[in-house]
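Is it possible to get an amino acid sequence alongside its tokenized fold?
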Amino acid sequence: MNFPAHATSPDAARTLADPDTPFAVVDVHRVRRNIERLSTRADRLGVDLRPHVKTAKSLDVAALLHPGAPCPVTVSTLAEAEAFADGGYTDITYAVGIDPHKLPRVLALLRRGVTLRTLLDSAEQAEFVAEASRRAGLSVPAQIEIDCDGHRGGLRPDAPELVEAGRILHAANCLDGVLTHAGESYFAYTAEDLRLAAKNERDTAVAAADRLREAGLPVTTVSVGSTPTAHAAEDLTGVTELRAGNYVFFDLVMAGIGVCRIEDLALSVVVTVIGHRPEYGWIVTDGGWMAMSRDRGTSVQAQDQGYGLVTDLHGNPIPELVMTAASQEHGTLATRDGARLPDLPIGTRLRILPNHACATAAQHHGYHVVDSTRTTNTAPGIQDFWRRVTGW
């Protein structure tokens, strides 16, 4: 990455007072704690954990998932798959429906010795995957996506096309298994709702796998997962692997549905106060939606967090102060109850906790890394800079 002469490069920055704002910050202590929490849970449930790297998109973050060796991962773009393959990862699931134009890149990774599973939800896709496999003389592992709730993609377990797609794939030695994602769990607001979402996710995937097996087709992988259901599942009998990604950072949406605490959020964005509009009850910063994203995921929750919660530079929440509005490069802070604004002079640096970690992280080239266990009276020290994978 090239930096203008007047800017502080990530490698030169020493504390959160150094880089030009806005910039993303990751608390490595919280990341490690979040990773350990789900790893322990997966072990207890008796399933393999296949983390989704789409949130952090960082080899440095992924290195914390399974110290000592690359672990199986899930990706959302082929750019991620290629970057992680370059980093030594050889067991990858590309969990977005495949299209014919992308198959040459899939085949290139397979020829490198990477097991790259593709995803599909139609007999049409199964046909072109099978044909590409035959032409290349190389099996393209494929999983059939199962629709368990949100209908964004996938086949229902009783869909006639499920077995049809399975047979097409099996004839080309491509059928790997089934995969589902409980996207509607992001709108489950009680512990019981989360438990039921996790149960439905499991039951739907297992039912689809059973139907394929009853048709004489082999099913090696039964893959389920989302951050909410991964933390709510009580029984994963019949499931082989659990996927989740947001949990490495967490965010305000996850806190709002009770999956984590505010104290678990590992990602924030540092901004600077650049103005005051006391007649409107506003403090203005240099961090707008280009820094935070336009995601307003908490607007449907009991506690609307605007565009994010405000903390001081050490990560301590400033009571009732919320990022209430955003334009491209301006953020507006206001108190939730209209109370008097805190005294934050121009030049004050703050951190904003995001609604959606995936969307906010995507606005940045990388993360300045701090460790909240290393307390200091001055600006928190920067331990490292972790770059992100970008593009598709």
